[in-house]
Amino acid sequence: MKIVGVGCGPGLLTEEAIRVIRSATLIYGSDRAIEICRSHIPPNCTVKTIDDFKALHTLPDDAVVLSTGDPMLAGLGYLRGDVVPGVSSLQVAAARLRIPLARVVPVVAHGTGHEQGMNDTLDEVLCKKIVFLLADPKFDTRELFKRLRALNLPLRVAVCENLGYPDEQIATGPVDSPPEISSDLYSLVIGDF
What we know:
The chain has two domains: 2-87, Tetrapyrrole methylase, N-terminal domain (Cobalt-precorrin-4 Transmethylase, domain 1), CATH 3.40.1010.10; 90-191, Tetrapyrrole methylase, C-terminal domain (Methyltransferase, Cobalt-precorrin-4 Transmethylase, Domain 2), CATH 3.30.950.10. It is built from five helices and ten strands; from the N terminus they run E-H-E-H-E-E-E-H-E-H-E-H-E-E-E. The protein has helices spanning 15-22, 31-37, 89-97, 114-126, 141-150, and strands at 2-5, 26-29, 46-49, 64-67, 82-84, 104-109, 130-135, 156-161, 169-174, 186-191. The strands form two sheets. Strands 3-2-4-1-5 form a five-stranded parallel β-sheet. It has a five-stranded mixed β-sheet with strand order 6-7-10-8-9, with helices on both faces. It starts with a strand and ends with a strand.
């Protein structure tokens, strides 16, 4: 099996990812991942939308599994098989904001990991790191901002929405008055930057 990072938006596929996709006979992916690489999928390839992420470990060895962004950043890199890296939302956000990746710590707050993601964010900013927070739409950003304000540090927040897409938007502001979040496809950059 191959786990292929398709980038966080259109046009961010690597040449290696394109080669693997073009030679695939069986592809699995989310609707978004399939759409990102649709123009490279061969006509004789069977394409299936992932309905059950828990069953991915049972896929055949010749399957290509598409992972949005990079499989090793909150993606499907945990699956057995070869991983083809992709351009992650972390890379795009750091480039747009001109922040060296060596200063950034990724924090994932998806599903049941909301409280842990909140605590990890607080710990990392106390260590003077810049946090790249991947959260789902149910994550309580108001509570996070409240806890960050209580630290009384000179923190800024960047709301990065639809990274890699034509409607990409990045808004920055102090933690006292952070930018509004208007998309379900967002990430946050938090720290002294």
